[in-house]
Every structure is written in C-alpha cells, then in structure tokens.
Write a structure and sequence with these properties.
Layout (H helix, E strand, L loop, with lengths): L8 H12 L3 E9 L2 E6 L2 E7 L1 H6 L11 E5 L7 E6 L5 E5 L8 E6 L3 E7 L6 H14 L2 E7 L8 H7 L8 E3 L8 H5 L7 E5 L6 H9 L9 E2 L4 E2 L7 E4 L5 E4 L12 H7 L1 H8 L15 H7 L5 H20 L2 H25 L4
Parallel strand pairs: 3-5, 8-9, 8-11, 9-10, 11-15
Antiparallel strand pairs: 1-2, 1-4, 2-3, 4-5, 6-7, 12-13, 14-15
Helix pairs in contact: 3-7, 3-10, 7-8
The chain binds guanosine-5'-diphosphate, magnesium ion and zinc ion.
Enzyme class: hydrolase
Subunit structure: Monomer. Associates with 30S ribosomal subunit, binds 16S rRNA.
Keywords: Cytoplasm, GTP-binding, Hydrolase, Metal-binding, Nucleotide-binding, Ribosome biogenesis, RNA-binding, rRNA-binding, Zinc
Length: 357
C-alpha cells in the first residue's frame, strides 16, 4: 500500500534506522489538531504523536499532510503512534498568519508539483499569482499555473495576456471541472506515485479539480455566489487523495494570507526580469530611485516593466527583509544552503523526467 503513496528506495534508506527499532513507515494523509490519518503497510489508521516526540519536537518539525513518518502499531491495530518524521524532500512553507513572532508553517511536504489555482472569472489577481509563484519556486516542487472555470469565461484572451508574462516560463493550463476541458493536461503534469498540491484561494475550484481528476465526488465542494465569486470554506483540512490512476493530489483549504517565508531564491526566480534589469543599472548598489543610468526606472518609463509588478517586487523584498532581521542570521544561512541545493536537484530531476512542459 505505501508503494502506491510514493514510497521509494531513497525513503527506505532514510528509514533504515527506524526499521532497526521495529517501527513501520507511513504517510500522513489527513492532519487535524493533534490527530493524523495515516497510510501504513497495514492499511489506513488514525494516530497520535508519541509523548516523547510531542515533547521534543520544535516548530516546523511536527508532521504535516504529505509527510513520511515512523510509527509503531499495537497488535490490535487500533491506532498508530508517530515517533519521528523522515527528512522532507521539499515543502511548501508560508509564514503563519497572525501577529507576533514570525513562525514558519509547512503547508505540504514531499510534493512533486504545485498547482497554483486561480479562477478565470472574478478571483483573478496578478499580484497573488506572483506571490504563490515565488513560494512554489522556493519549495523545489515544479509549479504549474491553473486557470479554472473556463466554461464561465466567454473570452479568455485578456486573462491569458495578463498572466502569461508573470509566469516566467512556468506552464499555464486552462481548465474546467464542468466541461472537462484541460483535465487530461493536468494529469500529464505528474506521474502515478507522484504528489501534486492544489493551492489557491477558497472557491477557485480546487476540490472540484480533485473530483474531476478522480472521476468521482471524492471531495465536498462549496456553493458559491457567482456575483461576487466568494466561496465558502468547504475544505477544512488538508487531505492527500490517491486517485484511481495512481496519482496523488493534496487538497488544501483556501489561505487568506500567504506570507513569505525565507523565499529569497523563489522571489528572485519569479521576478527574474527585474533581477536582470537591476544588473544593468549603472551603479551596482543602485536603489532604483533617482540614480542616473537606472535601468529599472528606464524600463518603468517606457512600459517594458509594469508599475504594479514593480511595486509588488518591492513589497515582497520588504517582507523578506523584515523576516531576516527577526531571525538568527547564522541559522538562516545554514538552512538556506541545504535548501537551495535540494531545490536545484529537485527541478533538475523533474526536467529529466520530461513530464513537464
Ligand atoms: N462553472 C464552474 N464552476 C466550478 C468549476 N469548478 C468549481 N466550480 C464551482 O465553484 C465552487 C467552488 O468550488 P470548490 O471546488 O469547492 O472550490 P475550492 O474552495 O477551491 O475547493 C463550487 O460551487 C463549484 O461547483 C468549473 O470549472 N466551472
Ligand atoms: Mg475545497
Ligand atoms: Zn537601478
């Protein structure tokens, strides 16, 4: 069973020390407060954290949906106990919403593809797509922009003209859960045994896409008032779903806020046009304000660079700077190094597989 959920030789190697202690591997499919649903070699099971793990784990180390964990299963198989989380291949991480000290929140772990979902009708927001794209590029998963509800959109050309320049070569798919348009194209973005996470605001049609891919009503979907395009929060927890074709999709509730977490490389990649311009400014320390020979200003003036896109870049830079002032810079540098390396390997592997456009 765990093979169908993406268990691999690499994971088996990481797991060996736990196997030596008599533990079993399992993947988290549903995460609710303090309780987890797992797929174990003995089937689906609910579980809780071992007292020791709960006591010793630091922020960001608690299991999330998509994680591989080491569990003990009692003889009556009544419920498993989680003792450890295996090292994550990658993770989609945001700054937890709310005031106070910035805290990382892992939204999904061990994902090959990140579907960034937005609807073609009223929800479309270029600045939000830029933010999601930066976070997805940072995660090391391969991003895919998905524009939903094509059946409700009489003319998609304006939306595509707005969005395509932002996606920096990341594939864009136009789909409809109602007509079925584009669903096979999404399937072609990942392979059986691989995991795609669905990310985007509430009501854009994420759960409907799970159902369209599954061919059955696997997830509850929300009623929506089409006049203001606001969805109800029907999906209340993150859930990893095994499709009949062997692919895995991780559905998430809408996120009101997607605060950046440690995403310098992702922002640089999502805004590589601005990064390239800034390199050609006359002064290497140009602040792009009123310096002579500023290539960014020149591009803003002649329309090559959109003013809203530029202002969003500044806003994201401020968010990153705000985070880095608050965190221990040494610890940050150490995690970044590992992360950039993994991210590069992950995307290179995805390209080699040739399953991405
Ligand atoms: N016309 C149309 N409606 C859709 C489509 N996809 C989703 N919806 C509707 O949009 C609403 C929200 O969908 P849901 O999948 O729950 O969105 P989620 O919050 O992102 O999971 C529901 O009423 C769906 O029936 C689509 O492709 N076309
Ligand atoms: Mg939903
Ligand atoms: Zn400049």
């Amino acid at each position: 069973m765990i093979e169908r959920y993406g268990w691999s030789q690499g994971l088996q190697d990481d797991f060996q020390p736990h196997a030596d202690q008599g533990l079993s591997p399992a993947r988290v499919t549903v995460q609710r407060r303090g309780a987890y649903t797992l797929i174990t070699p003995q089937g689906e099971m609910t579980s809780h954290l071992s007292g020791r793990f709960a006591h010793e784990a630091k922020e960001g180390e608690y299991p999330v949906t998509g994680d591989w964990v080491a569990v003990s299963v009692p003889p009556d198989k009544a419920g498993a106990t989680i003792h450890a989380v295996l090292p994550r291949r990658n993770a989609f991480t945001r700054k937890a919403a709310g005031p106070g000290r910035p805290v990382a929140q892992v939204v999904a772990a061990n994902i090959e593809v990140a579907f960034l979902v937005t609807s073609l009708n009223a929800d479309r927001n270029a600045r939000r797509i830029e933010r999601y794209l930066a976070t997805a590029l940072e995660s090391g998963a391969a991003p895919v922009v998905v524009l939903t509800k094509a059946d409700l959109c009489a003319d998609r050309a304006p939306a595509l003209a707005e969005i395509e320049p932002l996606t920096r070569g990341v594939p864009v798919h136009v789909v409809s859960a109602v007509s079925g348009e584009g669903i096979e194209g999404l399937r072609a973005c990942f392979a059986p045994g691989q995991t795609a996470v669905l990310l985007g605001s509430s009501g854009v049609g994420k759960s409907s896409l799970v159902n369209a891919l599954a061919g059955t009503e696997r997830m509850a979907t929300g009623g929506i008032r089409e006049d203001d395009a606001r969805g109800r929060h029907t999906t209340t927890h993150r859930e990893l779903v095994l499709l009949p074709d062997g692919r895995l999709v991780l559905d998430t509730p809408g996120m009101r806020e997607l605060g950046l977490w440690d995403a310098e490389a992702g922002v640089a990649e999502a805004f590589d046009d601005i990064e390239a311009l800034a390199k050609t400014c006359r002064f290497t320390d140009c602040r792009h304000e009123a310096e002579p020979g500023c290539a960014v200003r020149a591009a803003l003036e002649d329309g090559r660079l959109d003013g809203d896109r530029w202002r969003n870049w500044i806003k994201l830079q401020r968010e990153l700077a705000h985070l880095s002032r608050r965190e221990d810079p040494v610890a940050r540098a150490a995690t970044r190094k590992v992360w950039i390396q993994r991210q590069k390997q992950g995307r290179a592997a995805a390209k080699r597989r040739g399953d991405l456009e």
